[in-house]
Amino acid sequence: MPMQLASENGKIDVADQVIAVIAGSAALDCYGLVGMASRKGLKDGIAELLGRENLSRGVEVRHEGEVVHLDLYVIVSYGTKISEVAHNIQSKVKYVLEEVVGLRVDYVNINVQGVRVMR
């Protein structure tokens, strides 16, 4: 169900897929994030790392009235403080969606699906 924004010139419909891609792209700009993970969970105990072409697959978008709730499934880099990486992702995604798109974001949940060693 697309999110509807009202403006003085008419209404704007923003699809969930667009919100998910923007949120995934904003998250990938954060230090310590290796990539997005599949929402389906773990396969044989290993998180599936998604490429840049699949940004929206690691993001779940829900609406409650005029506010947006997001769940991001991510893989972080080994050696980084997971709580700091998660907080930075939350702040960046919320800022981008509120300031750039004009949506009201209630919360951004971060689900860390794995840790990868970067060489």
Average pLDDT score:
85
Give the topology string: H per helix, E per strand.
Answer: EEHEEEEHE
CATH homology-level superfamily? Cation efflux protein, cytoplasmic domain
Main sheet characteristics: 5 strands, mixed
Low-confidence stretches: none
Give the radius of gyration.
15 Å
Number of strands: 7
Give the fraction of residues assigned to helices: 25-40%
Overall CATH architecture: 2-Layer Sandwich
Total helical elements: 2
Q: Beta-strand percentage?
A: over 45%
CATH topology: Alpha-Beta Plaits
Structure classification: alpha+beta
CATH hierarchy class name? Alpha Beta
Overall number of structural domains: 1
Query: Could you give the distance between the termini?
Result: 41 Å
**What would you call the shape?**
elongated
Concise structural overview:
With 119 residues, the chain is α+β, with helices and mostly antiparallel strands. The chain has one domain: Cation efflux protein, cytoplasmic domain (Alpha-Beta Plaits).
Word description of this protein:
This protein is of the alpha+beta class and 119 residues long. The protein has one domain: Cation efflux protein, cytoplasmic domain (Alpha-Beta Plaits). It is 28% helix and 47% strand. The protein contains two helices and seven strands. Strands 3, 4, 5, 6 and 7 form a five-stranded mixed β-sheet that branches. A two-stranded antiparallel sheet has the order 1-2. The longest helix has 20 residues, at 82-101.
Which key phrases capture this entry?
single chain; elongated; Alpha-Beta Plaits; 2 helices; alpha+beta; 119 residues; two-stranded antiparallel ribbon
